[in-house]
Fold this sequence. Notes:
The complex is a heterodimer of chains A (490) and B (300).
Chain A: H1 15-28, H2 30-49, H3 54-61, H4 66-74, H5 81-110, H6 118-123, E1 127-132, H7 136-149, E2 153-159, E3 162-169, H8 177-197, E4 199-207, E5 211-213, E6 220-231, E7 237-248, E8 251-259, E9 264-266, E10 269-286, E11 291-298, E12 302-303, E13 311-317, E14 322-327, E15 348-355, E16 366-371, E17 375-378, E18 381-398, H9 402-421, E19 425-433, E20 441-447, H10 453-470, E21 475-477, H11 485-489
Chain B: H1 2-31, E1 33-42, E2 48-57, H2 61-89, H3 97-119, H4 125-141, H5 159-191, H6 200-233, H7 241-259, H8 268-285
Antiparallel strand pairs in B: 1-2
Amino acid sequence: MAQVTATRPAAGRPPLEYVVDRIWRFFCSVRAAVYEIAILAVMTLLGTLRGSSVPNSIGEALPFLQPVIDRWYGYDFFHSFPFMFMLALVSVAIAICTLNRAPSIWKTIANPTVTTTHGFLNGADSSASFTSNQSTNALAASVVETLKSKRYRVLTETRGDEVHVYGDRNRFAKLGTFPFHLALIMILVGGIVGARYGFRENQFTIPEQSIREVGHGTGLSVELEQFSDSYRENATPDDYRSDLVIYKNGEEVKRGSIRVNHPMTYGSVIFYQSGFGQAVSLKITDAAGVPLFDDSIPLGEFHSTSNPDAPAGVQELPQVGYRLNVIGPNEAFDGRPEIDDIKLNPGEMYVQIVPIGPNAAATEIQGAVVGQGDTVTLGGINVQFLRERRFTSLQVARNPGVPIFWTASVLLVGGLAVTFYFPHRRVRAIVASNGGQPGSSLAKLAPLAKRDWSGQRDFFRCVDAIEARLETKPVVKGRPDSPTLAESAA
Amino acid sequence: MEGLVKLSFYCFTAASIALAGATICYLVYAIGRIRVRQAILATATGTTLTATSTEFGPGSVGAGRFGSLLAWFAVLFAGLAVLLRTIAAERGPYSNMYEFSLAFIFAVTLIYLIFERLYKVKQLGAIVITIAFGMSVYVWTLPSGMREVDSLNPALQNQPLMTAHVSMAILSYATFAVSFAAAVLYLIASRRRISWLPSAEMLDDIGYRAVTLGFPMLALVLILGSVWAYRAWGSYWSWDPKETSALFTWLVYGVYLHTRTLRGWRGKRSAIILLIGFGAVIFTYYGNYFFGGLHAYGGV
Ligand code: HEM
């Protein structure tokens, strides 16, 4: 495990340097990272619970908390300043920590310290010693060869009559932490890029045979040529499809069908099928016969306030200072027919004008029932109900952050896999003559695996291999318990 | 098709029975023998004193062996139950809590048994297999209508992605259950050395290894979920409660992974974070009971 260290400020350093050093050390600290991630986690939990009835239940149990509960429901944690601040803080910490760790990790990989001390070997939690009547060099060679056969990289250094051995495995996997941690920053960058340079329309409705502009500087417009749907026996939609034509600056550039989960892409703009419904085609002219509106209004995005069973649509006509409401016949006949205050027949619509805006006409709210093909005059404008049509409801989005997000995802999972499944294993050893006895040498080995059960177990696998090669039993310390008492008794 | 669905249910029934037996065996094995001895002592004054002494001993090896055998039966039958249902429905087990829980029972028992083989210890079974058994009891309490196979909302019909997303979720929850069990035993073993429990070091390692499997898997759950959300409704992340509760869980395990490298945090405090993490897993699993949102038609 890498230790994150930064040098202590020497006495008498200038204050600025001291402060910079303290800040640097704060960002490098894994201990601080624990708290930072924990705070993020708590905010995520609070934000999550806000979408549930949990705060309410707390409020019922502890009524004096009710004001806090209300604020909890009212607070959008995930778009709040503290949340953004923590994300930024964690990103900066990751970046600085990466810079801080890189040199020492690289040194461990490229240029590790080979020599060790008897103090380290004697003090290690687990260790093994072999005595042999081979020469020091021959014994060292056996240790080296065995480690190599276990896919260790082995480096040796001779110090006087001692041979110091360093062996490690999976050293490059130590680099896995970098793509992983950097991926976390990239995900945030992807989110920012998407929010800053992308757009998303959730309710982009197009009636059949109508064209709608996409806007957002794309120069695109979309026509719905035809809409088709199929139903299951229980009247839930099984599948539905929109046949679209896309125009760029008025020229047809692409046509095709979209279904749920099968969107269509033009350039970086994606069109998703999300829903559908009924629309009414109206032709509206002013008193002089000048056309004000000749298109379709989707029904069902709104509902009549007095009768929630009746789908409604809204169109503003700012030129004349009106809002036009259109209400369709009751959808749910088995619902509550008694509240149907308009009692429309199929094929009829109720249209209503409401004065709004700075040009608000000084008329009262007026409404009338209109049959298909008929015209009514309300507040000086003529509204003709041409026919009913269907509309499709799309989501249109462009998100330039998505490629960044996918790249980050691959780095994240790949980096984690490398870090976790190729653990860096290290062994140190000193081979020397055995207490000056001629013709006897001693090899003492220990892993760098403090309180690391798997690391120690892998170390003893190497020890077992050396034992098999030398045909000598080692003196061992701290072999991890594998089978438990009961099991080995069996 | 009807027949397969029924057969799948019978397999689940067999798995439940095997799990009930396995739970008892593992509990007997892990708790060990407790022998209370009484001695009546006569004193010089003619009164008698009763002295009791409690002796603990390792559980019967036979119970452990039989527990494993039953657990393998449970894996076999739960696996068959999931497989038959998948064939009948022509899609992965993700349409409701019944299917989801069947798959979880299979995964958690299997992952536990793999750890049992790797580390050659059976005491964790007393916790993990009890969880699996508890889950099967929960499945019996679900409305029986869920046992039928029905077709899905069009938005959920992206099969390979959905299957991968949900399978990963189930596998990661299962590995977290193993790390939870290791943490519980760790907290017991680090308090008092009980000779027949695995060493605290080994339990710490089991908890960590389980997280090294579950953590990347949960990351994949979030990523596959975003790929699917992006295909289905054009946004890879919508701060939906089910998404954010999985993110919360992931962050808790992120905290755990860092604490393991810190002096003063490693050991007991890390183990406590594993308990919190599993609480988050349970919260995410049953999230549909609390939330509406995009995942609502996963169906409770
Ligand atoms: C706050 C900024 C962060 C800093 C300074 C930081 C620092 C570090 C360091 C130094 C290590 C290596 C520990 C060691 O091997 O000794 C590490 C490992 C790790 N970090 Fe972070 N980290 C940060 C944020 C995160 C976040 C947000 C996550 C995800 C939730 C995360 C997940 C991990 C994982 C999974 C490991 C691998 C642990 C292992 O090898 O066992 N880190 N981090």
